[in-house]
């Protein structure tokens, strides 16, 4: 019988199947799947995904302690961006000596997340945040800026509102 089975299922395949079966039953028969000691697969979206510290997400403008936009319109990021997705309009703001970005537009659908913009900024005014769920149904949702409803360059954008992790 054993010989017959060995012919039918070669030893290596049988060994592989037994290991798979062992791990499957370990997960399947455990009430709380998170208690399984060796977890190789992330349980996203039930468990929020952790990205690495250097992960490059969506471009975000930063504010200082007083809540002022840190960007001083040197235009370095706009010039260095290889896909030319940043458009800045330089202006003035009452009570502020440094130039103020009247407009800071960002076309996310063409961003390649290279981080050149962040590296070129000598004023630490921008970062690539850790937002990675950037799905959207409309192309317009990828156009971000400093003005208008949902055009927020400072917080996780509406382009990530379809995040499965938020459900
Ligand atoms: S990450 Fe790269 S492509 Fe995206 S805005 Fe910055 S420079 Fe442009
Ligand atoms: S490089 Fe920095 S300071 Fe200069 S325009 Fe871009 S965000 Fe503003």
UniProtKB/TrEMBL annotation:
Residues given in the record as [4Fe-4S] cluster 1 binding sites: 71, 74, 77, 121
Organism of origin: Geothrix oryzae
Gene name as annotated: nuoI1
Family annotation (SUPFAM superfamilies): 4Fe-4S ferredoxins
Cofactor note: Binds 2 [4Fe-4S] clusters per subunit.
Predominant cellular place of this UniProt entry's protein: membrane
Pfam families per UniProt: Fer4_7
Family: Belongs to the complex I 23 kDa subunit family.
Cofactor entry: [4Fe-4S] cluster
InterPro entries named among the record's database cross-references: 4Fe4S_Fe-S-bd (IPR017896), 4Fe4S_Fe_S_CS (IPR017900), NADH_quinone_OxRdtase_chainI (IPR010226)
Function: NDH-1 shuttles electrons from NADH, via FMN and iron-sulfur (Fe-S) centers, to quinones in the respiratory chain. The immediate electron acceptor for the enzyme in this species is believed to be ubiquinone. Couples the redox reaction to proton translocation (for every two electrons transferred, four hydrogen ions are translocated across the cytoplasmic membrane), and thus conserves the redox energy in a proton gradient.
Residues noted as binding [4Fe-4S] cluster 2 in the record, renumbered to the chain: 81, 111, 114, 117
Source organism superkingdom: Bacteria
Catalytic activity as recorded in UniProt: a quinone + NADH + 5 H(+)(in) = a quinol + NAD(+) + 4 H(+)(out)
EC id: 7.1.1.-
4Fe-4S ferredoxin-type domain: residues covered: 59-91, 100-131
Assembly description: NDH-1 is composed of 14 different subunits. Subunits NuoA, H, J, K, L, M, N constitute the membrane sector of the complex.
HAMAP family found in the cross-reference section: NDH1_NuoI
Keywords associated with the record: 4Fe-4S, Cell membrane, Iron, Iron-sulfur, Membrane, Metal-binding, NAD, Quinone, Repeat, Translocase, Ubiquinone
Record's bilayer topology term: Peripheral membrane protein
Name listed for the protein in its UniProt record: NADH-quinone oxidoreductase subunit I
Subcellular localization(s) per the UniProt record: Cell membrane
Keyword Iron found: yes
């Amino acid at each position: 019988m054993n010989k017959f089975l060995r012919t039918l299922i070669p030893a290596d395949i049988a060994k592989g199947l037994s290991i798979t079966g062992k791990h499957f039953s370990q997960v399947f028969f455990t009430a709380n799947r998170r208690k399984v000691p060796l977890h190789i697969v992330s349980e996203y979206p039930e468990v929020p995904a952790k990205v690495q510290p250097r992960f490059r997400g969506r471009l975000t403008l930063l504010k200082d302690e007083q809540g002022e936009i840190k960007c001083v319109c040197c235009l370095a990021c706009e010039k260095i961006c290889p896909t030319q997705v940043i458009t800045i309009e330089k202006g003035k703001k009452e009570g502020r000596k440094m130039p103020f970005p009247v407009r800071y537009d960002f076309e996310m659908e063409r961003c390649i997340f290279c981080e050149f913009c962040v590296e070129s900024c000598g004023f630490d005014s921008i970062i690539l945040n850790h937002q990675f769920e950037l799905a959207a149904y409309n192309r317009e949702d990828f156009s971000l800026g400093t003005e208008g409803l949902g055009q927020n360059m400072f917080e996780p954008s509406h382009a990530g509102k379809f995040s499965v992790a938020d459900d």
